[in-house]
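User: Fold this; tokens only.

Assistant: Input:
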Amino acid sequence: MIEVKHLYKSFGDKEVLKDINAVFEDGKTNLIIGQSGSGKTVLMKNLVGLLTPTSGNVLYDGRNFVAMSKEEKVQMRREMGMIFQSAALFDSLNVLENVMFPLDMFSKMNYRERVRRAQECLDRVNLGDAQLKYPGEISGGMQKRVAIARAIVLNPKYLFCDEPNSGLDPHTSLVIDELLSSITKEYNITTIINTHDMNSVMGIGENILFIYQGNNEWQGTKDDVMGATNEKLNDLVFASDLFKRVKEVEMNKIRQAQANR
């Protein structure tokens, strides 16, 4: 579990995050959503240590990441997996070598063990047959799956995903969502996904934090979204006509159920 307590972040005179308080739960897909410029990317960077909060704390299972020494933070990051907006694969390495890279850097396994572990992770994302291909030879969706395999190869406790569906078609986005959700439950990982994809919100949003102009405006589940009265949240999630109709249908069901009591 990751807890954020009274977190503020400023750049000069500009206050970007204002008293953020949130809990990201084990074994769940925790989503951070918000409009562009809302502060959600800055929040994630504070969580993983790419930025330091102006004030406040980030607790990893009770361990205060902000107060750790540089050496302690390096050790802590070995418990984290990261999936970047662009898959961020090494073009000069084949798929297997890309997944093996964290093992080469941080594990004490011998070469055969590293290969076996990387192959296990590629099999988990259904890419066992692509291990000798290079990033330029596979699709964008396959590259994201390679990135997922690389992110879980060290058995992380915490998995961070920055816009994992960026640039993908709707079907491939659904595949990535389902994969992240199933891996989260299978390994009981604390997964945090920074996303603007409302299909992800309604599909796998077990715990959703809505950031608006640097404030944590709302927090709840995908089911809570359907009955939410927060106008800012509704404007974001139900911007499309399809989602508006879904919301109307669900609200009518709730009203009907209340009337029948």
